[in-house]
Design brief:
0% helix; mainly beta; two-stranded antiparallel sheet; flat; 4 strands; single chain
């Protein structure tokens, strides 16, 4: 089961700037996303 949380906004900080993104859903999963455990998170291309 994947739990979804919808915050008012998310701030993404990089070395160059801070982006504020609205209308997002954060998915929380208690297990590994892949068999090898190589991913810790997934992010949509529009947030990058």
């Amino acid at each position: 089961m994947l739990l979804g949380i919808k915050p008012e906004y998310v701030e993404i900080k990089t070395e160059e700037n801070i982006s504020v993104i609205e209308n997002v859903i954060i998915g929380i999963y208690n297990k590994s996303l892949t068999k090898k455990g190589e991913y810790r998170s997934l992010i949509g291309i529009e947030l990058l």
